[in-house]
Amino acid sequence: MKVAVTGATGFVGSRLVQRLHDAGHRIKVFARNPERARKVFPESAFKQVEIVGYTPQQSGDWQSEISGCDGVINLAGEPISERWTPERKQEIMNSRVIGTEKLVEAIGKAAEKPKVLVSASAIGFYGTSETAEFYETSEPLQQDFLAQVCHSWEKAADKVTSYGIRLVTIRIGIVLGMGGAIAKMLTPFRLYAGGPIGSGQQWFSWVHRDDLVSLFLQGLTDENMSGVYNGTAPHPVRMAELCDTLGKVMNRPSWLPVPDFVIETLLGDGAVVVLEGQKVLPERTQSTGFSYAYPKVEPALREIVVE
Ligand SMILES: NC(=O)c1ccc[n+]([C@@H]2O[C@H](COP(=O)([O-])OP(=O)(O)OC[C@H]3O[C@@H](n4cnc5c(N)ncnc54)[C@H](OP(=O)(O)O)[C@@H]3O)[C@@H](O)[C@H]2O)c1
After folding, report:
1. Which of 81, 175, 209 to mutate to test the pocket of ligand 1 (most atoms within 8 A of CB)?
2. Residues 210, 215, 219, CA angle at the centre, nearest 5°?
3. Which residues contact 135 (CB under 8 A, 6 or more apart)?
4. How far, in Å, is the centroid of ligand 1 from the Cα of 13?
5. What spacing in Å lies between the alpha carbon of 27 and ligand 1's midpoint?
6. Which of ligand 1's atoms lies nearest the C-alpha of 95?
7. 124 lines ligand 1 (CB under 6 A)
8. Which of 43, 193, 231, 242 has its CA 20 to 30 A from that of 30?
């Protein structure tokens, strides 16, 4: 296949491109800074990767590069793990909503249209709760900022179906892999001061990065898939259990509660994702027969945490 990928240089995207490349596909990486992207995917190791420079929030010549691709994967978005100044909030929203609109516009204009768009969203769609369970069919409980972003992001992607193109939307949970949010959470544990974060009662709906990438790849090729799928593991845990497991895996005591301000310093306003959570279950994902390499959190953490 020839696959177009936005947000390819990031935490999820770089692993996804690696897997596509290993499987023998050709990849068009759409990147804001092509030189930087070439460093992430050096020609010597990524012969089948072509880099296309683009301006995600503006129509332009780059859009013609979509024609001839068999599938498109959309991961681009301004990181949420910084202080949310008004400007950054606007960029968190625009990078996803306008960025997706322009990508869909490109698909609409393409002479040779792709068959499928696999587009990211997030479990922030559902709002937060200590008691509710959320499935793909659940309505959001709140309309906080992240829920609004996810709603508008998904709506922007939906338009692609008007061109007769299959749309798979993946509501991503907290992705566990080397780097990412967990790397920052490990810092207090490494300093022997790890423990429950926040009340400990909040839900942590996680997914191992390898499983998430497999789900995106399945979305690309499985013609029976369309609509929304939760990109989370089938066994979410409460934060207290996550921290206990982390302590066990790292051979560190896990008893000293980590004050909210430490996490806020590490994760910025994005800390809301780990200080308040939601219990998300991947019911539709499992109904596709998707098989998880890491359904449970302890083996997932053991794979990631190398001392
Ligand atoms: N990681 C998680 O736990 C998690 C959880 C839920 C949802 N998600 C979503 O999944 C997607 C991928 O996550 P990730 O962890 O791989 O993110 P990431 O490491 O921050 O990478 C995102 C990529 O998006 C592009 N990007 C960054 N800022 C942008 C902007 N202002 N406008 C347009 N593009 C921009 C960058 O690619 P270029 O510089 O090459 O253009 C970057 O490599 C994101 O949209 C994220 O919101 C992630």
Report:
1. 175
2. 150
3. 230, 280, 281, 283, 284
4. 8
5. 18
6. 32
7. no
8. 231
- Choosing among 3.40.50.720, 3.40.190.10, 3.30.565.10, 3.40.50.300, the CATH entry for 2-173+207-232 is 3.40.50.720
Distance CA 121, CA 128 (A): 16
**What tens digit of pLDDT does each residue of 229-270 get?**
999 999 999 998 998 898 888 887 766 677 777 777 777 777
260 lines ligand 1 (CB under 6 A): no
CA of 77 to the centre of ligand 1 (A): 4
Which residue owns the Cα nearest ligand 1 atom 13?
A: 12
Domain residue ranges of the chain, discontinuous segments joined by +: 2-173+207-232
180 C-beta closer than 6 A to ligand 1? yes
Closest ligand 1 atom, residue 14 Cα: 16
Q: Are the beta carbons of 243 and 194 closer than 8 angstroms?
A: yes
Q: d(Cα 189, Cα 253) in Å, to the nearest integer?
A: 8
What pLDDT, in 10s, does the model give residues 117-171?
999 999 999 999 999 999 999 999 988 999 999 999 999 999 999 999 999 999 9
User: ∠ CA(283), CA(167), CA(132), 5° rounding?
Assistant: 30
pLDDT in tens, 176-227: 998 877 777 777 777 666 677 788 899 999 999 999 999 999 999 999 999 9
Q: Say whether pLDDT at 26 is over 70.
A: yes
Residue at 32: amino acid letter: R
What atom in ligand 1 is closest to the CA of residue 80? 47
Report the alpha-carbon distance of residue 250 to residue 112 in Å, rounded.
51
